[in-house]
User: Which sequence fits this backbone?
């Protein structure tokens, strides 16, 4: 649909003439911590992976177990400090992002029997692309490959599509209005208003693979 048509959507889940359900969700970046927690989780896993790799290298260099534990403890303290620094930078970066976005994350969802699309609204797309470009430039200037990759990805990716046939797990958090639709390398986040939450969740579960549905019910 055209961008001027997108502007007419509301948080009401509407069945359109093309057979797709569409709705717009506007989330407060200050009150809903979902995106912040996701960013913190990603950086925590990155730091954990680097720490583990460092420990394995120390194991190869250590003369005896005492020498290994001393070096490992030294590396652990260093990485704890680095991780804390990363978390602080993430917090600052997140609230800067929220400020630029006007405190809101606005997204259009399109859903049919084949899958669900998560698409940033046009005005926010431009802002997100600008932020991504700035992040990528900062990574190049600092020779930080991870930062550059994250920045380029955020600048280029303004929508995410999940095919129900490829979904591996579904997780629901009604309090945050969040349904996580996870593929192997694609983790989509579907936001929906409380009055339509059960409907959208049931629709998704009805169209994923039976084993995914059973896994959800068992959790």
Assistant:
């Amino acid at each position: 649909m055209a961008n001027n048509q997108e502007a007419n959507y509301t948080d009401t889940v509407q069945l359109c003439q093309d057979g797709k359900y569409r709705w717009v969700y506007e989330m407060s970046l200050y009150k809903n911590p979902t995106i912040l927690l996701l960013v913190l989780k990603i950086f925590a896993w990155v730091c954990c992976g680097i720490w583990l790799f460092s420990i394995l290298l120390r194991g190869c260099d250590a003369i005896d177990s005492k020498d290994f534990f001393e070096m490992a403890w030294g590396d652990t303290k260093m990485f704890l400090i680095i991780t804390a620094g990363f978390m602080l930078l993430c917090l600052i970066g997140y609230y800067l992002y929220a400020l630029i976005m006007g405190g809101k994350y606005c997204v259009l969802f399109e859903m049919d029997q084949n899958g669900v699309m998560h698409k940033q609204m046009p005005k926010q797309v431009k802002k997100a692309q600008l932020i991504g470009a700035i992040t990528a430039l900062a990574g190049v200037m600092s020779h930080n490959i991870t930062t550059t990759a994250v920045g380029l990805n955020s600048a280029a990716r303004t929508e995410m599509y999940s095919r129900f046939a490829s979904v591996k797990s579904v997780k629901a958090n009604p309090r945050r209005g969040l349904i996580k639709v996870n593929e192997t390398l694609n983790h989509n986040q579907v936001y929906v208003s409380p009055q339509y939450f059960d409907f959208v969740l049931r629709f998704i579960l009805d169209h994923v693979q039976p084993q995914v549905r059973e896994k959800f019910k068992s959790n």
Summary: The beta strands are 14-15, 21-28, 104-111, 115-120, 159-163, 169-173, 178-182, 187-191. The CA atoms of residues 177 and 192 lie 5 Å apart. The two ends are 37 Å apart (CA to CA). DSSP finds seven helices and eight strands in the chain.
